[in-house]
Structure formats: C-alpha cells, structure tokens
Amino acid sequence: MNVPTKRCRWANDTSLEMTRYHDEEWGVPAYDDRHLLEMLILEGAQAGLAWATILNKRAGYRRVFDNFDAEKVAGYTDRDIDRLLKNPAIVRNRLKVRAAVANARASLQVRESVGSFSDYLWQFVGGRPIQNRWHRFEDIPTATSESDAMAKDLKKRGFQFVGTTICYAYMQAVGMVNDHTVDCIRHPQCRSCATDG
Questions:
Q1: Closest CA to 8 of 135, 192, 147, 129
Q2: pTM of the entire structure?
Q3: What is the DSSP-derived secondary structure letter of residue 156?
Q4: Could you read off the pLDDT of 46-82 as tens digits, one per residue?
Q5: Does residue 57 lie within any of the structural domains?
Q6: Which is catalytic among the residues 10, 25, 31, 51?
Q7: Are the CB atoms for 123 and 110 separated by under 8 Å?
Q8: What's the CA gap between 58 and 90, in Å, rounded?
Q9: Domain span including residue 159
Q10: In whole angstroms, how far apart are CA 189 and each of 6, 38, 136, 193?
C-alpha cells in the first residue's frame, strides 16, 4: 500500500515544477551570491502575482538577465531595460525590471563593503537558519522582526521591491528559515541541511 507523501499544503495538487521547487529548493540554505541575487530579483518580480507565474518564467529570466551575473546586470542601460520590457519571457513591468538592475548594483556595493552578499544577508538570522515548528500552514507568519530588519537595511542600501513581506518570502525560499510544516517530508530534511552545512 502506497502512503501518500506529505508536503506543505501550498505544494499539494500543483504543477510538477512547483512540487520539484518545494522538494528540492524551498527552505534549503543557500549561500551562493549569484543564486541569492536571482531569488531576490524573482521575489520582487512576484509581488502581486502567483509564485507559479514566476517559476514558469524562471528559465526566461535566467536567459535574459545573463544568468543573474551581478556585474552584467548592474551594467544594463536604459536601452537594455527597454529591450527587456519587450521580452515576453519575463514579467514586463518597468518598475520591477528597473528594480532588478538597481538590486544588482546594490548587491555589488554590499560585496565591496562586506565581502560577500551571502555574509551580509545571513547576518539577519545570526548566520544560521531559524528552525520553526509550524503545525498548520495558517500559523506561518508573512513577516517577522528579522524580515523587518532586513527590509529596512536593504532599502537603506538602495535595494527596491524589498518590503518586509517580500523579504520573509525570500528568507523562506533561500533557507534562512525552515517554514516547512512539521508533517512535511522536507521539514526534517531541511533541518538536517542546516546542521550539515
């Protein structure tokens, strides 16, 4: 008899791509500067949209944003932005595209002053993932004092589309917090990733 795999409620009855994202990436601690910039840009692009929309466009984002190479994206001109706004592979919102460029530039400034974008971001959780133990999806917050602090500091440094709710979703995505519910197969796995890393 096959016992159904338990996942977080938001990952049930969704696309194969969303299930794969839940099972392989969401909540796994990430430390690579390029990946961290990618996820920050994608979380900002998602504002007001379903995450599935962004996930479906992720390959397009990687292609048109030079695989989120911070130096290349930071060098984009107004002409580049106009070109991107004609490309259906991404969300064609001028403010969000401009924010992606601004965030790449700001991430380079952070790297100059701190040494790595990763070290800067992980300081908001004391360098280790926060291990939550939520029993119900409804109990998971949309913002915390840590995401408040991150949002405030990011904005001060020139980042855009980084409100506290976006920052908390970002922290969940890159494993700064383990918000898999305790009945989800990924909760102990992500807890183990955090202690192994």
A1: 135
A2: 0.94
A3: H
A4: 999 999 999 999 999 999 999 999 999 999 999 999 9
A5: yes
A6: 51
A7: no
A8: 8
A9: 30-196
A10: 13, 23, 18, 6
Q: Which of 26, 38, 43, 61 is catalytic?
A: 43
Tokens (6 digits) for 158: 């020139």
Is residue 51 part of the annotated active site? The answer reads yes
How many residues appear in the chain?
197
Domain membership flag for residue 93: yes
In a domain, 159, yes or no: yes
Q: Residue 53 belongs to a domain with what CATH number? A: 1.10.340.30
- Residue 170: both structure tokens together: 């970002």
Neighbours of 136 (CB within 10 A): 10
* Residue 130: strand, helix, or coil: strand
The answer to whether 176 and 124 are in contact (CB under 8 A) is: yes
| 21 occurs within a structural domain | no
> Residue 124 is encoded by which pair of tokens?
């908001």
Distance in angstroms (rounded) separating the CA atoms of residues 54 and 61: 9
Let me know if 43 is a catalytic residue.
yes
What is the percent of the chain where pLDDT is above 90? 89
The rounded distance, in Å, linking the Cα atoms of 78 and 102 is 12
Structural contact between residues 16 and 52, judged by C-beta atoms closer than 8 angstroms: no
Nearest CA-CA partner of 55 in 104, 16, 95, 96: 16
Question: Coil, helix or strand for 131?
Answer: strand
